[in-house]
Design a protein that fits this description.
six-stranded mixed β-sheet; about 65% helix; alpha/beta
């Protein structure tokens, strides 16, 4: 709760203004029945028309003041609640931006989306209700009961029976519904995951004709949520009958006992009239409190989930005195052990001892799950090692400012991503200040100019969300061009030419030799032809170094490399290259 409320920031003032206006509104409403009693006793029964006018004018003023205070409270409540939700979303988004991959893996993407949408909306609605009704209802209860005691202490004891009854019933309902709502939001994560998977993989779903299966899966997830909400709302439906039972009990008791007190001269007709008003105010305040408790019950699960993200400490922390200049592209792995879940004992990389000179071209090859991507993720510090250290430019990567490190270590990841916008806007992710001429030059080096020139708007052609209007190979080449614009000390290509033909792949590698000769290049590939011309080739197997030498020497001495080479070259060649 503290973590969430800290996001109020500039909206603290409207919050306190709302509380003040709600309190003044209650005072105006409490005074109305009291004035009504004076009209009956001093005006109507005494046949004093001037008293009726006088007290009537006071009632009109009180009613207008109550209306004004209520409207102001509503305005301030909306401002504060909407501001809190905006700050929460911004705070969540800013926090997520600092997360490492391991932090995001911990929550899952659908879980983070639910927290930023459904959970924040629940908190917004609950906060608006709390600062209005949670202030209004207790004050209304206290003042109404105080006025009842002032008018007739004996009759007031009757109300306590109804209050105890309502507290027991409403409290029991609230405790049960709280447990149900806590489970509902975990089901929301599953529903969002189903939607996200289907939307992002819609081509696969249609290609395998799995629409019916996915529809049934979504329907089951949605039905689970519906059943839980029906169960919770079914229990909450008992609030109203319990409330009406208490109201009718009080009305009957006050009517019966009040008539006797009037006959005995212990109570006036006006006081009895005002008592009926205070009874309704008192019991309605309890009803409102039960609604607040239910709303808080719903939001507590959301508050906990949002708080989890805000409290999460990023696994990767900036050093106290960060180094911002990387002298060269040399890379050293000193006996590195790494696992995605620290302390699990399941290493993705084990005892990696590797030394790469600045400007070298290094090929990395190995089977699926051998640790190729894990290795390069450590160079740009997307993860931290468990043991040992990774050095770039002779210095541990944990000593560098992360922004400076990643500016000089350009990565074209296995999953290439383009964003909505023009080709130029996507390229300038690499360098926001790059000129159009520099973008064209980078595209030539990545062989992307070939297809860009054929597009109707050239470099101003709009890329649809996720790059859906370009092919896999075109997307890869644009991502390579984007990385080249960074003019990095180290360039990592993580299987990023897998969707281009071998002729284009060769052109890209030749362009690298001319355009960025001093840059250290690490090329992860599945094809021998993509790495055989590298200065040295690293062979990984099950997270360990199996070989590190030139193409010729590995063919003589390394069994894994020989097997890959024979299966690709002697077995028929690459997919678009003659044997």
């Amino acid at each position: 709760m503290k973590q969430v409320l800290s996001q109020l920031k500039q909206y603290k003032k409207p919050t306190f203004q709302c509380i003040l206006m709600a309190a003044l509104e209650v005072i105006m409403e409490i005074l109305l029945p009291f004035v009504t009693a004076r009209i009956v006793d001093e005006g109507l029964e005494a046949a004093n028309i001037s008293a009726v006018y006088r007290y009537g004018a006071i009632m009109v003023v009180l009613a207008f003041l109550g209306l004004a205070f209520g409207a102001a409270a509503g305005k301030f409540a909306s401002t504060a609640a909407a501001g809190l939700s905006a700050n929460l979303r911004q705070g969540l988004y800013d926090t997520i931006q600092t997360f490492s991959f391991s932090n995001i893996d911990k929550f899952s993407v659908p879980g983070l989306v639910t927290r930023m949408t459904t959970d924040v909306t629940n908190i917004q609605n609950a906060f608006m209700m709390i600062i209005r009704i949670a202030v209004r209802a207790p004050l209304m209860f206290i003042f109404s009961f105080a006025m009842c005691i002032y008018i007739s202490p004996k009759l007031s004891a009757t109300f306590l029976i109804a209050v105890v009854f309502l507290v027991v019933v409403l409290g029991s309902i609230t405790v049960v519904t709280l447990r149900i709502f806590d489970k509902v939001f975990h089901k929301y994560d599953e529903l969002n995951a189903s939607v996200q998977e289907n939307v992002s993989a819609i081509r696969v779903v249609k290609a395998f004709v799995r629409e019916d299966y996915e529809n049934e899966k979504f329907a089951r997830a949605s039905e689970n949520i519906r059943k839980m909400f029906v169960k919770a709302e079914g229990l909450l439906a008992f609030n109203n009958p319990a409330m009406m039972t208490a109201v009718y009990f009080c009305i009957i008791m006050v009517s019966w006992l009040g008539a006797q007190f009037i006959v005995a001269g212990d109570l006036s007709t006006g006081d009895l009239t005002s008592l009926f008003s205070y009874i309704m105010s008192l019991l309605m305040s309890l009803m409102m409190l039960s609604m607040v408790v239910v709303m808080i019950s719903i939001s507590l699960a959301s508050i906990h989930r949002v708080g989890e993200v805000l409290r999460e400490t990023p696994d990767l922390a900036e050093p106290k005195d960060p180094v911002t200049v990387i002298p060269d592209g040399s890379i050293d792995f000193d006996h590195v052990n790494f696992s995605y879940k620290h302390g699990s004992g399941k290493n993705a990389l084990s005892d990696i001892d590797l030394h790469i000179r600045s400007g070298e071209t290094i090929g990395v090859i190995g089977g699926t799950g051998s640790g190729k991507s894990s290795l390069v993720n450590l160079i740009c510090r997307l993860y931290d090692v468990d043991e040992g250290c990774v050095k770039v430019g002779g210095l541990d990567v944990r000593r560098y400012d992360m922004e400076a490190l990643r500016d000089q270590v350009a990565v074209v990841l296995q999953k290439n991503t383009l964003f909505s916008g023009t080709i130029l806007e996507n390229l300038r992710w690499g360098d926001p200040n790059a000129t159009e001429a520099e973008c064209v030059e980078a595209c030539k080096a990545a062989c992307a100019d070939e297809f860009i020139d054929r597009m109707p708007d050239g470099y101003n052609t709009r890329i649809e969300r996720g790059g859906n209007n370009v092919s896999g190979g075109q997307k890869q080449r644009l991502c390579i061009a984007r990385a080249l614009l960074k003019k990095p000390k180290v360039l990592i290509l993580d299987d990023s030419t897998s969707a281009v033909d071998t002729a284009t792949d060769a052109k890209i590698r030749a362009a690298f030799e001319k355009k960025i000769p001093g840059t250290t290049k690490i090329i992860i590939a599945q094809r021998i032809s993509s790495v055989e011309h590298a200065d040295r080739i690293l062979v990984l197997d099950n997270g360990r170094i199996n070989g590190f030498d030139t193409h010729e020497n590995l063919l003589k001495s390394n069994a894994i490399y020989q097997e890959i080479y024979e299966s690709q070259v002697k077995g028929g060649g690459d997919f678009d290259q003659p044997a």
